[in-house]
Write a structure and sequence with these properties.
single chain; 167 residues; mainly alpha; Four Helix Bundle (Hemerythrin (Met), subunit A); 8 helices; 62% helix; 0% strand
Length: 167
């Protein structure tokens, strides 16, 4: 059940990221870094694509993906269509990679050392899901809507008008 839940959450949040990238009226703004924000939505998108293709696609999915983490933060002005296509590919890689994980493997050590200490595969997959959620919120703050700041004072309908990706 946990594998299916993770697949659902990754698919949901990667589709939300696709909506976020699609919401930019000015494509160049995807690559704009707002004051007080460390990265553009485009670079966060590239980072998530690299992260998930590395740790789910290439490891349990055996896709052969080779990550270039530096490019995730240095590349600029890739077309929106490229980002959306890469997100579609990432959704497929995550789905296929998680299909290769069984319940026993969730309890076993994740094969790569990512943190200071080894973790279980289950722990690491949950970390990846929360990491995606964290950066999804970060990408929202670069879009100019800033709903997270005003959430307590807005109704669900007002939030949906301001930010349709979460409607």
């Amino acid at each position: 059940m946990i594998i299916q839940t993770l697949q659902t959450l990754f698919r949901r949040d990667l589709n939300r990221l696709k909506k976020e990238i699609s919401l930019y009226e000015n494509e160049a703004a995807i690559w704009t870094v707002a004051p007080g924000i460390a990265n553009s939505a485009g670079n966060l998108c590239l980072h998530l694509i690299g992260n998930l293709n590395t740790y789910i696609g290439a490891e349990p999915g055996k896709t052969g993906y080779i990550r270039n983490r530096d490019d995730e933060f240095s590349l600029k002005n890739a077309p929106r269509s490229t980002l959306l296509s890469q997100l579609d590919d990432t959704i497929a890689a995550v789905e296929a990679g998680l299909n290769n994980v069984n319940c026993q493997q969730l309890e076993q050590e994740y094969p790569l050392l990512v943190f200071a200490e080894k973790t279980s595969t289950g722990y690491f997959l949950i970390h990846l899901a929360t990491h995606l959620g964290y950066h999804l919120v970060r990408s929202i703050t670069t879009s100019g809507c800033w709903i997270y700041k005003h959430y307590a004072t807005k109704t669900d309908e007002e939030i949906a008008q301001c930010y349709p990706a979460f409607a």
